[in-house]
Amino acid sequence: MEYTTFSLDNGLKVIHQYSPDTIMVLVNVLYDVGARDESPELTGMAHLFEHLMFGGSVNVPDFDAELERAGGLNNAWTSNDFTNFYDILPAQNIEVALRLESDRMLSLAFTPKSLEVQRNVVIEEFKETCLNRPFGDLGHKLRSLIYKVHPYSYPTIGKDISHIEKVTLDDVKDFFYSHYTPSNAILTIAGNITLEETKRLVNKWFGDIPRREAKKRHTPQEPLQTEPRRQDIIADVPLNLMVMAYPMGGYKSEDYIISDLLTDILSSGRASRFCRTLEMNDIFSSADASIMGSEDPGFVMITATLENNDFATAEKLINEQLDRIKSGDITERELQRAINRYDSERTFSFMNFTDRANNLTFAVYHSEDPDEIAQRYHAVTLEKLTEGANRIFDNNKVSVLTYTPEK
Fold first, then answer.
1. Which residues pair with 16 in a beta bridge?
2. Three-state DSSP class for residue 67
């Protein structure tokens, strides 16, 4: 994939990818700030900022209205590691998006009204998703079981609703000027716009934003887990649920790829191991395996819903499947099927310019060539997969969380 990168004097990194097959353009801004950058006593700030960034900037009172008038749409998402904003609009109106994004990178409006409105939105979202929904607290319970010192110990929505309730305007200003800076951002422009025009417009709208150094990240390293952890919960839930979590390597580690392939072999599609074994057993209603990947070590999550609360038998049957792959009985066909599935998903993700831009953004963030990422998957052998399974599915590192319905 052909693309160009360049930087401004204020530290803003820019990616350009020309796609003449569309009349649209994507403007994406990735800020290297997430829930991991928050104070333990004031969590949920990055997610709150996802909302505040639409609540008015220094010269633009209504971000959405101006973009909609230009025929555009926008959205954003927050993770433990990043906050990402994107706008899609006709290429001829790209300056609208650049003006809006540059203005909120310069400074938000910081009004009491905007803070109160967005605070209430986030509080209602917390209540709806975490307090008033079955298993809504699963993310909080599981993460606090897995992580003891790392800020991954709470979801992006925050550790407690009281943290957002007590946020002040000074807290908001401090968090913004500490993280939402040109030097802490990657601007990606993809679509029907030339490199020459991109450079001209980026310099016009972002070149005058003063350089601000982002607050340095000091993340405590999570101690190695040496014994199983368990928590059993009786709650107002509709069914029996068991989650088994195992620490896995961060994005740059080989175990990240191995974990992705292992969970695919275990639960992706009708030919997967869980589908052919566990889901044919009367105990299980469903069984799934997935990765919660992140920059620092994340975790592999095995989730099972059960017909009864015989968690001991369910765990035994799951461990039998894990022991089989640890013993080395994964076939070349299973490995190739998992790699083929990755290749297929990656190919489809490059078929439209918005997904290509997302792939580019994260490749550049990780200092990778996007065309070489697939090679990390193709380099995995059966021997590496077996070795990785034994490292990852260590019985001394498992965290087990169960939910039983109230009687």
1. 4, 189
2. helix
- 162 CB neighbour count, 10 Å cutoff: 10
Distances in Å between the Cα of 220 and the Cα atoms of 223, 250, 251, 296, 399 are 9, 14, 17, 10, 20
Q: How far apart are CA 139 and CA 298, in angstroms?
A: 13
Tens of pLDDT, residues 350-374: 887 788 888 899 999 999 988 888 8
Pairing of strands 399-405, 229-235: parallel
Residue-wise pLDDT tens digits, 124-164? 999 999 999 999 999 999 999 999 999 999 999 999 999 99
Neighbours of 17 (CB within 10 A): 24
Distance CA 149, CA 14 (A): 34
Determine the Cα–Cα distance for residues 205 and 362; give it in Å rounded to an integer.
23
Give the Cα separation of 184 and 84 in Å (integer): 12
Helix (H, G, I), strand (E, B) or coil at 316: helix
Q: What pTM was estimated for this model as a whole?
A: 0.94
Query: Residue 75 — φ and ψ, nearest 5°?
Result: -165, 180
Q: How far is CA 118 from CA 53, 63, 114, 172, 359, in A?
A: 10, 14, 6, 12, 30
